[in-house]
Each structure stands twice: as structure tokens, then as C-alpha cells.
Amino acid sequence: MNKNLSRKINSAMLSSLLLPGFFGLYIIFESGFSLDLFFLLIVLFFALIGNFFYAIPVSLLIDVITSKLHKHYLIVSAILHLVFAFITIIFIREYSYFALFCALFFFLAEEWQKGSYKTLKLNQIISNGISLVVIVALAILSTYLLFDLTEKKTKEYYIIPDGYVGNVTVLYNMKDEPKPKKVGDYNVIKINELGYGLTSLPEAEGLIDNKYYYYDKDGLKEKIKENCIHIGSTGSTSNGEREFIYSSFTVINRGCTNHFSAYGSKYLEDHSMDVEEILQREGLGDFGY
């Protein structure tokens, strides 16, 4: 096997293994709970596909482009690896973050195998290292900004009765409901004491960018922290004549953690109403309640 191609394959394998390892450590550091092995295996699987079917051909192309460079070879090569990873945002959207880290690991594995660092003086290693950190930071920031600008966002502004804890259900496309009020760019959805709200809005799509507030009888509001909210399911149900679209989330007011925000809690005492029970209460069908 061609020595260059063999090195690329090694780099692809190393990059694919480092990616789930890196994100596994990040999850432990960020959330402090046990890892989801299945998630990491999925990351590994797609990293292998991306590295072998995209990164290796791209890296071979970069070798051709940089073949006549000497002085700034490392920086140019790093930039090109990250640029080609950045391009994947067109196809894989928010998962392009994974591509960026794969590209970084691939590049580092390549140069380590080549022994490029052995020919550099200490000041060159430091300057190249700083440059690489800056380039990676700019690539991540650019990906975030581009994704933020182009991604649709939900923009819902929930006001929830003070002290309410449990599941919250929102029914969309309710024709008899008035046009919602707005707070800036956000559509206001008021939740009643029974834990549900009706809105004439269509179901929101895109990146969740909602705001949640408790309000009391005097109209005073208190912002609910993000880790006190667990986003639940969306779905639909029918009364035989019409389909009703709904979404749900769970809110708590103490013991808020990143684990709850991500996974919810099966121990939470919840007295909220089922979707069918809500519809029957609103006179929109008989579901036997």
C-alpha cells in the first residue's frame, strides 16, 4: 500500500477514535453523569464514514495544494483541513461541529506521523500552536454564527402560573384562539393553572429558542432557568374529524440540573392532564374522561 495513503488511513482511524473520546470527556465534565455508550458508538460510526469517504480524499487534495509550500505549510494545511470541514455545514448543518473536530484530529495525527514537529524550533512550535488554537476558535465561531443566522428558531415566550410544577402541553392551530401577543420577536403562549395552553400559532419548527417565565396574580414575572425545563415530545391526536398537533415540556422550580434538562425525571409527581383530557375539557371531542 502507498505509504502516504497508509498514513491517511491511520489518521482517519485515530481521528474517528478521538472524536467520541473527546465528546465523552466533555459530557462527563459538563453534566457529571454516566455516558450514553450508544450515542458514542453512533458518533464513532459516522466519524469513520466521514473520515474515510471525505477526509482522506480531501487530505490528499490538500497535499497536492501545499506540496510547494515550505515556510507556512503547517498553517496553510491546518486552515485547508478546517475549511473543508466547515463546508460540510451545507449538508450536515449543526453536526458540522463534529466535522471540525474530526478535521483537527486528522490534521494533528497526520503531522505527528510525519514528524513535522521534530524540524521546528521551540519558538516555532509555540507560534504554530497559538496560530492553530486561533484558527480552530475562528472556525468554531464561524460555524456557530452561520448556523445561528440560517437556522429557523421557535421563538416562543411561555408564561406559566407561579409555582406550577409538572408537564405542560401546548395545542397548536387552534382557530378560535386570538392572535398571540408578542414580546419582541417572541410569541406569547399563556399556560393555565391546569398546565396547558392553546394557541392559534402553527407548530414551531427549528432550533428551540424559547423563554419561560413564572407569573403571579399581580403580573410579576420570574424567569425560569434553562436547566429547570425538559423539552418533551411532540405529536398529534384526532377526535375523528380533526387532527390536533401538540408539544410538551416539563418544568420544575427546584433541584434543576443539566441531567433533568436533558433526560427529565421519572420520579416527578405529575398531575397534569393528558392531551385527550384537555380536548374533552375544551369541548373538542369525547374521549371517555
Automatic annotation (TrEMBL):
Residues 152-260 form the DUF6843 domain. It comes from the Bacteria. Pfam families: DUF6843 (PF20862). The chain crosses the membrane at residues 12-29, 35-61, 73-91, 125-147. The keyword Kinase does not apply. Keywords: Membrane, Transmembrane, Transmembrane helix. InterPro entries: DUF6843 (IPR049293). This is DUF6843 domain-containing protein. It comes from Fictibacillus phosphorivorans. The lineage of its organism: Bacteria, Bacillati, Bacillota, Bacilli, Bacillales.
